[in-house]
Amino acid sequence: MIKSPICELLGIEYPVFQGGMAWIADGNLAAAVSNGGGLGIIAAGNAPGSYIAEQIKIAKRKTDKPIGVNIMLMNPFADEVAKVVVEEKVEVVTTGAGNPSKYIKEWIAAGIKVIPVVASVAMAKLMTRLGASALIAEGGESGGHVGELTTLVLVPQVCDATNLPVIAAGGIADGRGVAASFMLGASGVQMGT
What we know:
Layout: H1 5-10, E1 16-18, H2 27-35, E2 40-43, H3 49-62, E3 67-72, H4 78-87, E4 92-96, H5 101-109, E5 113-118, H6 121-129, E6 135-138, H7 151-161, E7 166-169, H8 175-183, E8 188-191
Parallel strand pairs: 1-8, 2-3, 3-4, 4-5, 5-6, 6-7, 7-8
């Protein structure tokens, strides 16, 4: 497997993120993926902060590797979950379904690597200016709340618009999709179902 800047940045073996799939991506799955060398991610979905705190504790009991939490910003408990990731000292936060600008400064101050999902060049540029550690360029093939562009169109545009590592997401299901993502300039991939 290819090593990339995202591996060094996050302390992971492989440049593969597990997608934040609501009610599926729990502490057990995140720990298993992180133990396997990727970045396991707990999905907040529409869950309250107490559920996410519990899942983080489960993951941390099962792995000493980095884990992440995906905060779906349309979650009515997003403010609560944003505080939980700081309190629980999560290594990485990914975000989706909105603009995480109001949280970024606090997360960075807490030492969290912030990796927002972006569906446009404009959002990629904003997140870069605000201090994101990397970006997830997620095309419309992905599940969840994404933009209009496909992954193969979006990834090179985002790579050209930022100096940050870019993770490709959406419709990547095998080695061919991983290889295509790297050829388009990505430093890693995010895969869900």
